[in-house]
Design goal:
By secondary structure, the chain is of the alpha/beta class. It is built from six helices and 13 strands. The longest helix has 24 residues. The mean pLDDT is about 95.
Length: about 290
Amino acid sequence: MIGPERTDHGPGEPAVAIVGGVHGDEPSGVRAVERLRAAIERGELALQCGVALIVANPAAVEAGVRGVDSDLNRAFPGDPDGDREQRLAARLLEQTGGMRTLSLHATHAEAEPIAILDGSRPGMLEMADELPVPYVVDHRRVAKGSYSSVADALTLEAGCQGTEAAAVTAEQIALEFLRATDAIDGQTRSVSSQFFALDEPVEKPPSARYELLVENFQLVEEGAPFASVDGSLVHAEVPFYPVLMSAQGYTDVFGFRGHKLGDGLAEATAAIAAEQELSEAAAQRGQSG
């Protein structure tokens, strides 16, 4: 058995799932899952419904690598006859089908928590809006193969990869998620979130030394320098909001260009609806032309 490792808790069949260890080199989510299991077993959390706690890729977690054969978060919907991660993806989808799911991650790019989702999936924006995260990102344009592109799964980037602070944040927001889904009693602690959408990756040219000169989620004007490569400045060709950008987080890209959908759920929902209408109209013109 290659995984995932799942334990069920609470009354009835699980309606909610919390997943850590999709990437084995992001231990904060695994720590959060383990701490939640321990709290439930000690009787410190009274569950109102069934909850599945899952470590998605235990072999990668044990080895401390992103994936064993490939990247699990690029392998969905999976293949029962594929490599290790493709098989894991198929099994994880089967195990969490029909459940509202929180998938715990960490990043090199941002210390504050970020919720990432597919804004075209019903209810996902509302789910993110109930959590205390300052930034919500719709990744559907660049989300090929990701868990949250094929399931009702909300991805949480809990903070800086490998830190105890990220593990604490992952556990805290997992508890808020359990409250928001009525798995435990209590009022959720939300914040006023800003909503963004990813547009495209920002490639890195080959180099020995990179530096990021801008802050994530802060507007970069056209022509402004946003990075340096071996001391040479890289300038923005168009205005954009940096999202998940860092000097060393990815091997071949700095991160992503994005645009702002709005401040708050209502503005973001309206912006996504307007973008979908424009996309559908363009598709119809293409078919008729």
